[in-house]
Structure formats: C-alpha cells, structure tokens
Amino acid sequence: MEDFSPRITKRREDLSSDVPIIENLNSALEELFFIEHPQYKKRTPDITGMVDEFIASHRDDDCFIYYPSRNRTIHTVTEELYFRLRTSRNRNIVVQDEQLKFRDLVVGIAGLSVGSAILEAIAISGGPKRIKIADFDTVEVTNLNRIRAGLPDVGLNKTHVAAENVWELDPFAELTLFDQGISRDTIDSFIAGTPRLNVFIDEMDSLDLKIIGRMICRANKIPVLMATDNGDGVILDVERFDLEPERKLFHGLIPEMDVEALKNLSFKEWLRLATQIVGPEYLTESMQDSLLQIGKTIPAVPQLGASASIAGSAMCFALRKIANGEDMPSGRYTINLEEKLISHYLDPDMVDARKKKTEMFLKSFGQ
C-alpha cells in the first residue's frame, strides 16, 4: 500500500527543491501571541513590536510538513504549538487537562459511513492522536450525502479518503489503516493489538463481527460505543465492559449466540435481528416506514448526513467523559430532534399513535 501520510521534518534541506512551500509560520506565531496574551487584541495600538519580538523568539519552534497527495509543503509550528493553536477555542468548554486526556485516548473506528462523521468530529475537536480506522469499501456517489468526501474521491478506498482528511487537519495524527476492512482473522488485532484500544467504536454492518468484537472487548475490558442513525436523530449505545466485565452484549437485547449461526442469515432474518438490537420502540416513524420498504421501493437502510454529524458530536462527548474518568454509564441514549423541535410530539394522543404504529411494525417482522 502506498504511504501517503504527511512527512514532517525540521530541516529545509530535506525537502525536494521542486515542491512549493507555503509559509504559515509567522501567521501561526502571531495567532499564538494573542492566545497567550488575551488582554491584547489585534487592533490594540503600539503592540507591533511585542508581536514581532514574540515571533522572533519562537522562530525555531517550526517544522515542514510535506503532503504527498498534494505535492506541497507547509512551513508551520511544531506539534505542541499547533495543538495549542488548534484547540485554543475549545477552552474552557473543554479545560486543558480534559483536552490532553482526550488526546491521549486510543480509539478504533470500524466502518466509515457514520464512522466517517465520527472520525471527522474526533479530529476537528482535538481528540485522540492514535486512531485505528477500518473499511474495505470504496466511495460511491450514493455515499456523498453523509461522508466527508467529494466527487474526485469516488472509486477510492474509504479508509484512504478518511485518513487523508484527518491528516490535512491533524498531520501529527498516528493512524493505523485497515483498508481491507475487518474480518474474523483481523478483528482481535484491530481491538487488542498494538496500540491496544481504550475504546472500540462499532459502525460495522456485519452482525457476526459486531458480536465477536464485543466478546473480544468484554474479555479485554474495553468499552464499546455505537451510534445508529435514526431518521433525523441518533441512538447512542454505551457498553462499559471496562467497568462491567460480566455485562451482557447489546444490553441483553439478544441472547448470547453462536456466531456461526449468523453466517447464513437471510436478509429478512438479518434485518429482524438488527431491528431487535436497535430496539423498534426507539425508531422514528420515518425510520420504521423506511425499513418496511427496503427491497421494495428503496435498496438499503436510509441515512442522513445531518444525523451522522449528530452521531459524531454525541460520540465525542461520550469519549471525553470516558477519557477523563467522568460519569458515562452503560445504556442506550436517544437524541431525537422531533421530540425537541415538534411542539406536540409528547402529547398523549401522539404518543399513543406512535405506540400503535410500532406494534404494527413489529407484526410486520413477525415479532
């Protein structure tokens, strides 16, 4: 596999003479001055000398970052200063100690559909530096409603596209790429191999790998997080196997099963089991209607880019709490925009109508 990760060096002489260099050092150091001297503003009179002196005193805190895929080099600040700059506007919603513990977490994301939005949210918020990502699939036009990619990326491996997006934002990120996806032969290495995960994020479609992954995490006391699109909202599952090593898989929603039995499931059986895991009572009306139309009027489970973004935000929140040892218990959490934004959503008659519709939905699956 071609290595397209950024090349970072302190020495200008290490650079190819035919690669353009974009100068960012002085502007980055000027920004840093105002971050470290918040009493001043950029238009404050008579501070030009102070700014110039600050820049001169930090001129050696620099590096050159070469991006192979773009064939260009950025001259900017070192990793420590870059991280300070990039996370400066997080303060004090996220205080420095919380940010550093979040950065130190080791996370794995298996599946880069919703997982792509989660990865983007992690990277943009200054989250884990060490991340494993996995997806065997290529970007298709139908993916462009929800993953961070564009038309030039169609046909490229999702793992490669996701990695390049992260590195353009965080060139110091240490990514381990499983561009062939995860299989029964590699899932243990993904979760427990070097670097060993602190949190496993499951965004896979394969039910047998979901179950095997949780078995591995339970044995190794690694928490599992999963975000599921739900119409205009998201269902977030937290399984704290680190705190509850005897905890049942999927909150006990399905019985402990022989994974071999999952190999030959029909699509309808797979959909029934997946719906049982998600919990039909949590599904929005539009999602219930959509699931009944799969294979009839639509080819696959619908997903919205806006919902994927919500999933990324929710996942970042949960990861920060886990990284900092704060309260983030096992359970199922719903973020439902309809509930929050539709004024009559919780009226008794509407609640009763949704309950009856869910009962009809269950009967359609023989439950």
- Counted up, domains total 2
Uncertain parts: none
Total of helices: 13
> For this structure, what is the CATH class of the largest domain?
Alpha Beta
Which radius of gyration do the C-alpha atoms yield? 23 Å
Please state the second-level CATH architecture of the largest domain. 3-Layer(aba) Sandwich
Give, in order, the helices and strands. Answer: EEHHEEHHEHEHEHEHEEHHHEHH
Determine the mean pLDDT.
93
Structural class call reads alpha/beta
Structure description:
With 367 residues, this protein is an alpha/beta fold. The chain folds into two domains: 7-86, no CATH class; 96-263 and 301-340, 3-Layer(aba) Sandwich (Rossmann fold), CATH 3.40.50.720. The chain has helices spanning 25-36, 48-57, 79-86, 96-104, 114-124, 158-169, 187-192, 207-220, 267-278, 285-292, 305-323, 337-341, 348-364, and strands spanning 7-9, 21-23, 62-67, 72-77, 106-110, 130-134, 174-178, 199-202, 224-230, 233-239, 331-335. The strands form two sheets. The chain has a seven-stranded mixed beta sheet with strand order 7-6-5-8-9-10-11, sandwiched between helices. Strands 1-3-4-2 form a four-stranded mixed beta sheet. It is globular.
